[in-house]
Amino acid sequence: MEKIGIITFFKSYNYGVWLQAYATQKFLIKNGFDTEIINYTNKHDDKKLRYIYKEGNSKKGYVTSFFKSLLFGKVRYYNKGFKRYLHRFYNLSDQHFTDVKDMESLKYDCIIAGSDQIWNPQITDGKLDEGFLLRFGNIKKRISYASSIGSSRVREQDREVFKQAFKKFDAISVREEFAAVELQKFTDKHIAVVCDPTFLLNKNEWIEFSRQNAVMQLSNIKYILTYFVSSDKYTDRYTNLVKSYSKAFNLPVYSIQFSSYYSSGCDKKILGASIADFIKLIDNAEIIITDSFHGVSLSLNLQKNFVSLENRSNPTRVRNLLGNLGIEERIDMDIMRYKQIEYKNVVPRLEKMRLDSAEWLLNAIKNE
After folding, report:
1. Which phi and psi (to 5°) does residue 101 adopt?
2. pLDDT at 124 over 70
3. pLDDT tens-digit readout, 149-183
């Protein structure tokens, strides 16, 4: 049996990173591969998981990070929702790494980088992370699956970095057409566009995972669910739209959060939910309103009605996904234009995307 290592984001205040990591691992195990996630957190992310760190790269950041953690429970809810389930939901390497230099002795038959924005330097403290470019280890085969550069064009200083790194890759795929066009300039290898790994698991698999692992108890009360990751979540654009839906449907608003900080228009804060609870909350919601790519992805996969508020700092990936499925009108859909999604038209496209992507990944692993 081939041994596969996955290197990706999976420790963050963000449900998307946890879900995509779990899905990649689960899909590979289901297909017979001995798979583990390399327990790697780059130094930039590692410091943000502490109670106190230099937030915003300024000295006063030590104070603001501490009070956010202390007063609003940010670290406490992270530990409740994720850390305590770390070894239950993930197969991890024995050693924890924060420096790519310490991973030189790692050996795998195949290593997979991705998914998520692993090639977006804005996410990794202003520079590309060499770990996510697979520049380490005794590896027989190097593959990128559904990696993303976000919505930014490749910077001048990163072009040669990609060019040299891609020479050692055996197969490369990304999550957006935009990324494929940008990165194809730096390699002769074909760059494929595949779906996010959360789509590698189907609706029934996600619901079964939630059924077995969710601990949150929900009443029979119907609700609108919100999950926001953009700093725009406190703006009138967000709060007014949520309030208009709540009023029109006469439903309370449940908000998934990592911090107990005030949310305008929210009737109930969901704090410290696990990824299994996250799936359960989406599956039981009447409508999901989100600016998160993975909030949209899971809503689609579970065939739920949703509205996608455009994350203006990173709009490309959601537009690309919804455009491919023929439902780009869900973006910023106000209450006057609201209609239910005709999933009979969406599901066939979604299934083709899922099957094509699964086939690409399995072929990339197995081909010599």
Report:
1. -65, -25
2. yes
3. 987 889 999 999 999 999 999 999 999 899 999 99
Three-state DSSP at 71 gives: helix
Look at residue 243 and give its three-state secondary structure. helix
- pLDDT at position 265, please? 77
Coil vs helix vs strand at 34:
strand
Task: Find how far residue 332's CA is from the centre of its chain.
Answer: 21
CA nearest neighbour of 186 among 166, 205, 206: 166
pTM of the model: 0.91
Question: Cβ(37)–Cβ(22) under 8 Å?
Answer: no
Burial per residue of 265-303, b for 16 or more beta-carbon CB atoms within 10 angstroms, e otherwise: bbeebbbbbbbbbbbbbbbbbebbbbbbbbbbbbbbbbe
Instruction: Output the six-digit token pair for 185.
Output: 């300039």
- What is the rounded distance in angstroms from the CA atom of residue 108 to the CA atom of residue 5? 6
Residue 116, phi-psi category: left (phi > 0), alpha (psi -120 to 50), beta (remainder): left
Distance of CA 12 to the CA centre of its chain: 10
Residue that the structure tokens 């389930």 belong to? 85
